[in-house]
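ARCHIVE CARD
Drawer: 12
Card no.: 0347
Subject: one protein chain, sequence and derived structure
Cross-reference: see card 0346
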Amino acid sequence: MEYTIREIIQKTEHFLPETDYAHSSDDMLDFRLFSGDFYQWEAEKLRFKECVEVMDFEQTAKTFPAFENIRYKSREKFPYFTGNLEMLAERWKHGETIAVEGGPCLFGAHEVSVIVRLNNDTVRMFDYANGKAYKRNYSDSDFSETDTLAEYLRQYGQQTEQITFRQEKMGLTPQEYLNLRYPFEIASALGGPLVIPIPDMSYRKFLLAVLEFVPEHLRKQALNDFDAISADIVSFYLTAIENLQKEFQIENFLCVHGGSQEELQLWYEKRLPYLERGKILRSLTRLPEKINPIKDYISMPALPFYLFDAPLILQVDSMDETDSYRKCKKAHKKAFQMGCIMIPELLSGDDVHTFYDAPLKWKAYGNYSELTSNYRKGD
């Protein structure tokens, strides 16, 4: 569903001048947000999903002064979804170190497709990112709301003759670059560790689960083919991350991805006592193919704790990761203290979809020097 902060204020029968957003910019109030109806009021501020507070740029920077260092020219147009910033700012003010974690998804809708051919020559195509079937064989059309790759292979796995992939992703979208740049800028301002995960390992776990129902030789071939595509896409991120690290020179920096065997082993070992508990496991998902990826997503924000023993963590992510923030805090309880700054999903050039969901022609892949032109120089 699409909302704006102004519309939410009106819908909840509040009057703008009586809220903390009375002096917020029109750009921020009218920024189009693609989220469910999960807003409530606490005092004169909106809360989202009962765990993060909506702020404009000035409010966020006033609460958390390091945020003033963000140099993205459009920074004041965004509503920000924040949590525990007062606590983190106070601890930082008294000389304690704050670690930052965050980063984008591996790829979005329309960027990698899965083509399944059965032994009766029936062919179905699915989008890998959302797992849904295309309504037509291949186009930028809508997806089926009922047919999924997992259900299809569960039903027709033994009749499957061929599984192939189509990679269309040719670079990073502006959203993906922004979701890399914000963590670097904030970590640089804070002077603490930074962990950027690239979730190729999590995307692979989804494939491992859905391939359970197909013959073994197809499973091996599909995994090999996907690994090659995944490695190609990871290289886009590694290039951008290398350039950002050259610019910001974060002293304690780690990029964790499928090739980071030492860090992955440490991560998986250290998270066991926090995730492998009945109450936590029951709250993850009812979909078996998503259990292991979700274990990754709700423990990724804790990577600075696992890898640097960080007692204070700031998650800097897309607002779509609000659930991972909430569930991570719940799973780890008092092991560390955590806050967040979540940025909204940007609207693509079609004025309908976010970059994640946009058809290919609106992904706006660009070279990174062009993307950085939207940054203040010397601020």
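Annotation on reverse: The chain has a mean pLDDT of 93. The longest helix spans residues 216-248.
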